[in-house]
Backbone:
């Protein structure tokens, strides 16, 4: 599953927001009960390990100059929830990356 979310922020601000809000990622997972572990192997990549519904899903978020791209590998057993997860990611990501209000 690949979800791209456009933004108008500089990369450092995107990284800061991802770090500051990474503990909230589990809240966006359908069912609301998920354990999330994150890491930063490089400045522009945050890794994710998400445990939910007895399954573990791994993925990453790449920070690009005009978008962030989330890639998750859903196991076949969870493929039916891909549209739900993609919509939740898009919604929460857009809120987190919205330009600051003046």
Residues:
């Amino acid at each position: 599953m690949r979800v791209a979310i456009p933004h108008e922020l500089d990369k450092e601000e995107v990284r800061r927001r991802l770090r500051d809000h990474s503990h909230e990622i589990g809240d966006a997972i359908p069912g609301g009960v998920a354990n999330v572990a994150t890491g930063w192997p490089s400045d522009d990549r945050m890794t994710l390990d998400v445990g939910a519904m007895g399954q573990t899903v791994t993925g990453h978020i790449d920070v690009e100059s005009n978008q962030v791209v989330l890639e998750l590998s859903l196991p076949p057993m969870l493929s039916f929830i891909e549209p739900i997860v993609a919509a939740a990611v898009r919604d929460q990501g857009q809120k987190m990356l919205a330009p600051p209000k003046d």
In short: Residues 82-97 form the longest helix (16 residues).
